[in-house]
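Private note to self, pasted from the team thread so I don't lose it. C-alpha cells:
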C-alpha cells in the first residue's frame, strides 16, 4: 500500500486501536504492528520533545510576544576598558529561542503525521497477509530502493539548520526595533511593518536613499550583465574567425587574467586610481593633467569607472563560455544563409545571436542576479562612495553593500533585514518571470 495515498483522517477513522493510540502516544502503531525498534525511536522523539517543551520550550514561546521586558544595564570596566552588560533580558536570544521552538513544534507535527500514516500502512499489510519489514530490511532499503533518502537526509538537515532557521530569524528582525536607535541594543520589541514603511517612504531620508540605491543597482546590473555578454561574445567571434591567427595565444592572454584572483585585481585597481595612485601620478608627470582625476569622489566618474573595470574582470569568463557554444552551432545553417545571400550582420542577428540567447538565457539570468548581489566589485573598488553628508548609503552602493553597512558598520539590524527581504523579493520575481518567458523554458526540446 502506498503511504502517499493515506491521510491522517483515514488513519483516525479506519485504524485499529494501535493506530488510533499513536495519535496520542507516538510510535504505538508501530509497536503494535511488529516494528518495535522504529516505534521505540519515534516514542523517544516524542518524550524528548515534551521534556524540551516543559523544560524550556513553553518559556521561550511565552517570551516571544514581548521579546523581554527588563532592560540590561551597562557599566564601564576600567581594567578591560570596555562597557560590560549585566542582568536583564536579551531580546536576540529570546527571538532565536522562540524561532527554534517553533521549528521544533513544526518538526514534531510532521513526525506525527508520518507515523500515523505509516501505522495504518502497517495495519493494512498485516490485514492483507503480507510481511511487515524488519528493521534490518528497512536499513537495507536505505542503501537500495530508498538510497535517495539516505543521500538527501544530511544535506537537507544542513540546509534546515544553517540556512532556513537563520533566514527565518533574520526575517523576524525586520519586524522589530532592533537597531542602535533603541534605548538598549540588547532589548527591543516588535514593530510591525513600520520599518518596511520607513524604507518604502520616498519622503523620508531612508526611503529616499533606498529608491536611489535601487535605481543604481538595476542600472549597474543591466550594464554589468549585458555589456559583459555582448563584448565577450564579440571577442569570442573575433578569435574564432577562420582568418584569425594565433587563436590559442589570444585565448591564453584572456585566460591569464582569470588566473589572477578577482579581489587582487580590484584592490590593485583601487590603489592605482587613487588621487596619489600610479595613473594620476603618471598623467601629471607627463603634463596631461594638472589635478588628479577624481575617480572615486565624483559620482558619475566613479560609476563609469566601476562598470569599465567590471568589463575587464568579466569579459574573459563570458568569452570562454561563448566559445564552446559558438563551436556547436551547426555549420549547415551558416552555409545555407550564405547561399541565400545573407551578409555577416544578417547572419549574426538571424542565426548566431538567437542561438546564443536560446542556450545562454539561464546563464544571463544568473549573471543578472549575481551582479545585483555583486558585493566584491563595489566594496573593494569604491567602498560604495562617494557618500553624501547625513546619508548611510553611498552613491555607488548596491542594495547588498548598503545592507552590509547598515548592519555591520551602523547597527541598523532591522533596516538591514528589511533591505534583505525586499532584495530577495525583487530577485525572485525577476528570475521567475524572465526564465518562464524565455524560449529556453518554453521550448526546451529544440532550436529552430
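Design output:
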Amino acid at each position: 500500500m502506498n503511504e502517499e495515498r493515506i491521510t491522517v483522517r483515514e488513519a483516525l477513522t479506519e485504524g485499529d486501536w494501535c493506530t488510533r493510540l499513536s495519535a496520542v502516544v507516538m510510535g504505538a502503531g508501530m509497536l503494535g504492528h511488529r516494528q518495535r525498534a522504529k516505534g521505540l525511536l519515534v516514542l523517544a522523539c516524542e518524550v524528548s520533545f515534551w521534556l524540551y517543551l516543559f523544560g524550556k520550550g513553553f518559556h521561550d514561546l511565552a517570551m516571544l510576544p514581548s521579546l523581554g521586558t527588563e532592560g540590561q544595564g551597562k557599566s564601564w570596566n576600567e581594567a578591560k576598558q570596555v562597557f560590560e552588560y549585566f542582568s536583564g533580558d536579551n531580546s536576540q536570544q529570546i527571538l532565536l529561542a522562540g524561532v527554534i521552538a517553533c521549528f521544533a513544534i513544526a518538526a514534531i507535527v510532521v513526525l506525527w503525521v508520518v507515523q500515523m500514516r505509516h501505522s495504518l500502512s502497517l495495519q493494512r499489510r498485516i490485514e492483507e497477509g503480507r510481511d511487515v519489514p524488519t528493521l534490518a530490511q528497512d536499513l537495507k532499503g536505505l542503501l537500495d530502493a530508498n538510497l535517495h533518502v539516505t543521500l538527501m537526509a544530511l544535506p537537507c538537515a544542513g540546509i534546515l539548520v544553517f540556512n532556513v532557521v537563520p533566514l527565518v530569524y533574520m526575517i523576524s528582525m525586520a519586524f522589530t526595533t532592533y537597531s542602535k536607535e533603541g534605548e538598549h541594543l540588547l532589548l527591543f520589541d516588535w514593530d510591525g511593518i513600520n520599518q518596511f514603511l520607513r524604507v518604502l517612504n520616498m519622503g523620508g531620508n531612508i526611503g529616499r536613499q533606498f529608491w536611489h540605491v535601487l535605481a543604481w543597482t538595476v542600472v549597474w546590473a543591466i550594464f554589468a550583465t549585458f555589456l559583459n555578454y555582448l563584448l565577450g561574445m564579440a571577442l569570442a567571434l573575433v578569435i574564432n574567425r577562420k582568418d584569425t591567427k594565433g587563436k590559442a595565444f589570444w585565448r591564453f592572454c584572456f585566460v591569464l587574467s582569470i588566473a589572477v584572483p578577482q579581489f587582487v585585481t580590484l584592490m590593485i585597481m583601487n590603489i592605482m586610481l587613487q588621487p596619489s595612485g600610479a595613473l594620476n601620478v603618471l598623467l601629471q608627470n607627463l603634463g596631461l593633467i594638472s589635478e588628479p582625476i577624481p575617480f572615486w569622489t565624483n559620482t558619475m566618474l566613479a560609476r563609469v569607472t566601476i562598470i569599465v573595470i567590471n568589463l575587464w574582470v568579466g569579459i574573459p569568463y563570458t568569452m570562454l563560455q561563448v566559445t564552446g557554444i559558438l563551436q556547436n552551432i551547426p555549420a549547415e545553417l551558416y552555409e545555407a544563409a550564405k547561399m541565400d545571400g545573407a551578409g555577416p550582420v544578417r547572419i549574426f542577428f538571424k542565426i548566431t545571436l538567437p542561438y546564443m540567447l536560446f542556450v545562454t538565457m539561464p546563464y544571463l539570468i544568473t549573471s543578472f542576479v549575481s551582479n545585483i548581489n555583486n558585493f566584491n566589485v563595489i566594496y573593494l573598488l569604491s567602498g560604495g562612495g562617494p557618500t553624501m553628508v547625513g546619508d548611510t548609503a553611498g552613491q555607488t552602493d548596491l542594495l547588498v553593500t548598503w545592507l552590509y553597512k547598515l548592519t555591520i558598520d551602523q547597527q541598523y539590524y532591522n533596516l538591514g533585514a528589511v533591505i534583505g527581504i525586499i532584495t530577495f523579493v525583487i530577485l525572485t520575481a525577476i528570475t521567475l518571470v524572465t526564465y518562464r518567458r524565455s524560449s529556453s523554458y518554453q521550448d526546451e526540446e529544440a532550436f529552430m
